[in-house]
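Page 47, continued from p. 46.
Same chain as before, 548 aa.
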Amino acid sequence: MPPTPTFPAFSVNPRRQDYDDSNSQQNLKPFNPRQSDSRSSDPQPNSGPSDSKPSNAQPSNPQRRQGGSDRDRHNRLHPSNFFAALSSLAENDRITGLFMMACALAGLILANLPETGPGLNALAAWIPLDLPGGLSLSLKDWIQDGLLTIFFLTMGLDLRQEAATGTLRDHRQVLLPTLAALGGVAVPILIYCLFNLGSPAGLRGWAVPTATDAAFSLAALQLLLPKAGPALQAFLMTLAIFDDLIGVLLIALGYSSLGQPSWLLVCLVGLVVWALLVRAASRSARLWRPLVFICLLGALAGGLLAWYGLFKAGIHPVLAGVAMGLLTPVARSKAAEAEATEAEESSASTAPNLTEPTEHRRTDTKPSGTEPTETHPPVTNQANTKPAGFEPTEIEPNRNPTLSPAERLDHFLTPLSALVVLPLFAFFSLSISLDQLGPGLLTDRVFWGATLGLALGKPLGIMTMLILAGHVGLRRPAGSTTGNMIGLCQLCGIGFTMSFLIANLAFAGSPHLESALLGVLAGSVLSVLIVAVGTIPGRLRSARHVSS
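Result:
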């Protein structure tokens, strides 16, 4: 007769052991049907001959396992998870840049097909809403003047955030990108004006080749120059921020006509309402939840009032988005700070101290007279070998569980801006017919001014300022080489969103509009091709080195 096995005297909760794996210290393994089958096929100590047959082991509670999988599927399809996936997708510069490029090329192709060209032109000229107050705009105008304000709002939020907590806070890091951005604006303007001397109509587009598209440039930098470190990416991002800021100033000063100055007071009132109610919404979260919704609706009304005030004053209304972003607070309220402190303290109190040596931890004492059970080493035993002062990041409490109003708004609007607004704007901006251009495009001054202003003027101006800055003692980004810096300067010739907008403002209703838009597209593509061809020798050397 086989001996009767002995078991520990302490009680085990079978319900928790079956399907609760939240306690990592017990090291409970999940159910595996194959392992269960192999174990059940061995003869058990207390089983008779009839029990030695292999049995098809099933989960202890199949209905609960099925319910758990249904809950997991429901959680995956939850709207919050869907929005989180959209947010991560919108923050991927490669995907958003390629998507915007695809939309721009799709608009250009569809506008020149005989089957879709007339319908697309009719759609762009369609007036969806016949509103009073001069707001009877076409669909293309609503996208350019209305929806694009969301993009400028995110731009203002990024500027506000960077100025408060980012790279723009350190004046030493800001000086070099600022000088580079100024050089990248001055030289393209000079090249464009040289091509259009004697053409007053063409000179209206002097600011077209001055912009750098941050999303496209960062995506191209990561694809074509993968060895560019974080310092180069931060330098390019800071340069693009100042480039956008200069573009905003150029639009306000060069392409706005102050027809009715009194409407600027209306815009000012709207901005004040926006600033006050956004701050009130961030501070009233703990007082009364519906009050937050009311404050946000009032802030939206103030933003719309500021937009309409600029529209009636004769200034391009998208600039209201930049002002609204700059007026959004980046500091968390006292209530949010208290909530963050409470969450941090609760996380710190419930988290185990993994840095404490194993021999000093509390262990469950076994009752006397029982045989010692097999103990598994803790999952985090490697953490005990770390030097003093090591803090594991796996259980580190969240230091910022509540975001500032600017971060929340930016997180909410970025998917809408990157995945909807900018692709629509690129699609309708390049929905132009090439029938009227023909071979005359090769001799068009506006086309060549925009093309060479971006592909030649931007890198030449930025490199010139970097060389001059080096002579006065300003250091280049850490880890940068001459080749990487040349490639980065060349990629700054990619200009889409801001250049398209300036072209539409400069040549509205003019035959030069198509030439300017195609010049922006040609200059951007040429900048990418120059960097791609320039990196071919290095890629070939790397391939030969790997093969050898």
